[in-house]
C-alpha cells in the first residue's frame, strides 16, 4: 500500500480505522524521521552484539567496563520520580488487548505495564489495534463487549493503575512497514506511534508517557533510547524530561537503583488462580507470598504480577513492609559487595535435571509457539501466564543441556537422540505434526535446539513464520 510519504510503504491490508486513528500521515512522517535518524545506529549496535557474543563463544568473559567506571563511581541520581510513579509496590503486566487492558487498569495494582513485546503476538492487527486500545485507555474511553454480551468498562480515573508501555526491543523489525525497502525498527514504530498520539493528552491529564525498555545489552543501547527521547520531545514541542523510562532486571540491582534514587522492581508472579482446585491455589499463593517476602526483605520497592487476583496477595506483603511509605529507596544496601565473578555464578545448589523437566520444556515450547502463531502472545499453560520469555527459556535450556552433555537425575546424558525421542512422544501427545501449527513449530524448535550455535532470539525466525501464515 503506497502512502503520500516518499519511500514509505505498508505491506498489509489496512482497515480505514487504522489509517484514521493510528497510521495518519503526520504520525507516519514522524516514524519516517525516527527511522532515518536512528536506525543506522541501531543496526550498528546490533552488529556489536554479534561481535561481543563471538568473543564470548571463543572464551571471553564479562566484566564491568573500565570506560564507564567514572559513571559508577561518581555521585548522581535519576530525575525526580513523578507523583504517579512514587508508589509502585504492586505492578501488573499484560498485552494491549482491550479486555486485558481494562482488567489490568481496574485491578487495584499501582502500575500497569501494557506490553507490546513478549506477551503480544505481533500480527499486524494486534500491533495496530493495540495502539488504538492504548489511545482509548489514555483518554479513559476504552470499553469491550464479549461475545456473550458482557461489557467491560474502566473505573473512574483516580482508581486506575498508572500506565507504563513496553515497546518491542531493538533487535526486532516491523516488516509490514518499509522505508525505501528496509523494514522499520519495531522499537521506533511502537514507541513513535504511542508517543505521537498520546504525549499531549498525557500531559493535559497531569501525567506523562512512561516506558519500560526491554532487552538492552549495553549502555550504548540505553544512550540511543535517550537520543530518541530527546529528538521526539523536540519534534513534538514538549519539554525534555517529559518521557520517563525504566529497566529492572537482587541485591546489586537494589543497591544500584537506590544509590541513584531509582525504584527497584522485583520479578513476575505468573500464577493464574484456578476456579476449580483450591488446593492448587493455596500452594501457589503460599509460594507467591514467600517470593514477595524475599523480594521486600532484599529491598525491592515493588513487584510484578500477571493476574488481577494476585494483586491483593502481593499488596498485602508490601503493605506490611512499607506501611505508609511509597517505597524503600532509603535502604541503600551498602553491605552488598557483588563483583563480576559473583554475578556470573549461576550455580543453583541441589538442583537436578529430570526427564520430566526436559519433556516440560519441549511441551511448553510447542504449545506456546503454536498459540503465538495464532495471534496469542499471552497464553495460560499449567496455571501460569506465559509469554515469549517462557519459550525462550525452554529452548535455551534444551540447547544448553545437549551442548554441555548435562546428566539427568537418573544418570542418562541429555543428547540430541534423547531430545528427538522425547520430542516425538510429546508431539504425538499434542496431536501430532498435522494439528494446527505443530509441524512448523517443531521444525523451528528442532533447528534452534540442535543448532551448533545458539540462536539469539526465538521470535526472530518465528516472526517470519507469522508473516508467512498471515500474508
In short:
This protein is 47% helix and 12% strand. It has 471 residues and is of the alpha/beta class.
Description:
The chain is of the alpha/beta class and 471 residues long. The chain has 3 domains: 1-32 and 91-246, Alpha-Beta Barrel (TIM Barrel), CATH 3.20.20.360; 248-336, no CATH class; 355-470, Malate Synthase G, Chain: A, Domain 4 (Up-down Bundle), CATH 1.20.1220. 47% of the residues lie in helices and 12% in strands. The strands form 5 sheets. Strands 6-3-2-12-11 form a 5-stranded parallel β-sheet. Helix 2 (25-57) packs antiparallel against helix 7 and helix 14 (416-429) packs antiparallel against helix 15 (438-450). The radius of gyration is 23 Å and the shape is globular. The mean pLDDT is 90.
Q: What global shape is seen?
A: globular
The CATH topology of the largest domain turns out to be TIM Barrel
Q: Based on helices, strands and strand pairing, what is the structural class?
A: alpha/beta
| SSE sequence, one letter per element | EHHHEHEHEEEEEHEHEHEHEHHHEEHHHH
Number of strands: 14
Give the integer mean of the pLDDT values. Answer: 90
Q: What is the domain total for the residues?
A: 3
**Largest sheet data:** 5 strands, parallel
The percent range for helix content is 40-55%
* Rg, Å, rounded: 23 Å
- In what order do the strands lie side by side in the largest sheet? 6-3-2-12-11
Separation, N- and C-terminal Cα atoms? 14 Å
- Indicate the low-confidence ranges by residue numbers: none
Strand share of the residues?
5-15%
CATH superfamily of the largest domain: Malate synthase, domain 3
- What is the CATH architecture descriptor of the largest domain? Alpha-Beta Barrel
Provide a count of the helices. 16
CATH class categorisation of the largest domain = Alpha Beta
Amino acid at each position: 500500500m503506497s502512502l503520500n510519504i516518499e519511500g514509505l510503504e505498508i505491506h498489509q491490508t489496512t482497515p480505514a480505522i487504522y489509517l484514521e486513528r493510528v497510521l495518519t500521515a503526520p504520525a507516519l512522517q514522524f516514524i519516517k524521521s525516527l527511522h532515518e535518524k536512528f536506525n543506522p545506529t541501531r543496526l550498528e549496535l546490533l552488529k556489536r552484539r554479534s561481535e561481543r557474543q563471538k568473543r564470548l563463544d571463543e572464551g571471553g568473559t564479562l566484566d564491568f567496563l573500565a570506560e564507564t567506571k567514572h559513571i559508577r563511581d561518581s555521585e548522581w541520581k535519576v530525575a525526580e520520580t513523578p507523583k504517579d510513579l512514587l508508589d509502585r509496590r504492586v505492578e501488573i503486566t499484560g498485552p494491549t488487548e482491550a479486555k486485558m487492558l481494562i482488567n489490568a487498569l481496574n485491578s487495584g495494582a499501582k502500575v500497569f505495564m501494557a506490553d507490546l513485546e513478549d506477551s503480544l503476538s505481533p500480527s499486524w492487527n494486534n500491533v495496530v489495534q493495540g495502539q488504538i486500545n492504548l489511545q482509548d485507555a489514555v483518554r479513559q474511553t476504552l470499553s469491550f463487549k464479549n461475545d456473550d454480551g458482557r461489557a467491560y468498562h474502566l473505573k473512574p480515573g483516580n482508581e486506575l493503575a498508572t500506565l507504563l508501555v513496553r515497546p518491542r526491543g531493538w533487535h526486532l523489525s516491523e516488516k509490514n512497514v518499509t522505508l525505501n525497502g528496509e523494514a522499520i525498527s519495531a522499537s521506533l514504530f511502537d514507541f513513535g506511534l504511542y508517543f505521537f498520539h498520546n504525549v499531549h493528552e498525557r500531559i493535559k491529564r497531569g501525567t506523562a508517557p512512561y516506558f519500560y525498555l526491554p532487552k538492552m545489552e549495553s549502555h550504548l543501547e540505553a544512550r540511543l533510547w535517550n537520543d530518541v527521547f530527546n529528538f521526539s520531545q523536540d519534534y513534538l514541542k514538549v519539554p525534555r524530561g517529559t518521557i520517563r523510562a525504566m529497566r529492572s532486571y537482587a541485591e546489586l540491582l537494589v543497591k544500584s537503583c537506590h544509590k541513584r534514587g531509582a525504584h527497584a522492581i522485583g520479578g513476575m508472579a505468573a500464577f493464574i488462580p484456578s476456579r476449580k482446585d483450591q488446593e492448587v491455589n493455596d500452594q501457589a499463593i503460599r509460594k507467591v507470598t514467600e517470593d514477595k517476602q524475599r523480594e521486600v526483605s532484599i529491598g525491592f520497592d515493588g513487584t510484578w504480577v500477571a493476574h488481577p487476583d494476585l494483586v491483593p496477595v502481593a499488596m498485602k506483603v508490601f503493605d506490611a513492609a512499607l506501611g505508609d511509605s511509597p517505597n524503600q529507596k532509603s535502604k541503600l544496601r551498602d553491605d552488598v559487595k557483588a563483583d563480576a565473578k559473583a554475578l556470573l555464578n549461576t550455580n543453583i545448589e541441589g538442583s537436578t535435571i529430570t526427564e520430566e523437566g526436559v519433556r516440560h520444556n519441549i511441551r511448553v515450547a510447542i504449545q506456546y509457539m503454536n498459540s503465538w502463531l495464532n495471534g496469542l502472545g499471552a497464553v495460560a499453560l499449567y496455571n501460569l501466564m506465559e509469554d515469549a520469555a517462557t519459550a525462550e527459556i525452554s529452548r535455551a535450556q534444551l540447547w544448553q543441556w545437549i551442548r554441555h552433555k548435562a546428566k539427568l537425575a537418573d544418570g542418562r546424558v541429555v543428547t540430541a537422540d534423547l531430545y528427538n525421542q522425547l520430542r516425538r512422544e510429546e508431539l504425538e501427545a499434542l496431536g501430532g505434526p498435522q494439528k494446527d501449527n505443530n509441524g512448523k513449530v517443531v521444525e523451528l524448535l528442532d533447528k534452534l535446539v540442535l543448532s551448533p550455535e545458539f540462536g539469539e532470539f526465538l521470535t526472530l525466525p518465528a516472526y517470519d513464520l507469522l508473516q508467512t501464515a498471515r500474508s
